[in-house]
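Below is how a single chain appears once it has passed through the pipeline. First comes the sequence as given, then the structure the pipeline wrote out for it. We keep one example in the README because the format questions we get most often are answered faster by looking than by reading.
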Amino acid sequence: MSLRIFTDTSANLPAPLAQELGLEVLPFTYFRAEEPFTCLDTEHFNAEEFYGALKKGEKVTTSMVSIADYQTAFESALKDGFDVLYIGMSSGISGSYQASAIAASELQEQYPSRRVVAFDTYGASLGEGLIALTAARMLLRGADFDEILAEITDRRSHMMQIFTVDDLMYLHRGGRVSRVTAMIGSLLSIKPILRGDPEGHIIVTGKARGRRASIRTLAEDLAANIAIRDADSVGIAQAGCAEDARTLASLIRAATPVRDILIVPYEPVTGSHVGPGALALFYLSKNIRA
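Resulting structure:
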């Protein structure tokens, strides 16, 4: 295999799974009391403490991977004779993809005999991670660069990302939704239903009265739209609401043939933008994302 696949911690993948599949994960950075941290292993990340602190008002800031860090990681692989495929976070919500694309373009000029591709998933968390898993598994089965790129491009257009949050102000502070949208949601005490649009921006597409109703809405969306042939490509991310994630998984299993569901805590960088109580569902739809 002459290809190395990279992703980043926004993909929200458990470290043992990424390591097993040979994925190389680049870390985003978050700051608590101005001290920098990275989270390469969500299995040892104390989600309850972190999201509890956010609820109490702690401010967390984040930073993306720099162009220089992308270049260092990619060039290491290129020097060893590998092509590079980077599977990254949506350009619709972060500048990280643009940084990776600049790094890839500059290195492509320096290593014209190799391929260096930065792939925009138009997703985050497992909307990015499930695509990275597909690529890594295909590589292990012997697929070549073009076959992998074609498959993940098709999957990107079908990857549904639907979620609910407790407080829209977290998304507003990060520039993901407007202040008016955030304020209306808070004033009406509704639970918004949000999606990633085809370009990876976050949009509000519905509402539910109460938490239980919002969880049911997520499960019903999957049951109505999932491509059953890809029923193993389902993931749930939760920001300090593990019990709600288990409830959502149970509803899905009761209504569909889906059995294998990857459930993860939101890693702290993406999680600090969606806020405590966020619950997200990712799956491949029979329809193109709209």
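The first helix runs from residue 15 to 21.

See the next section for the split statistics.
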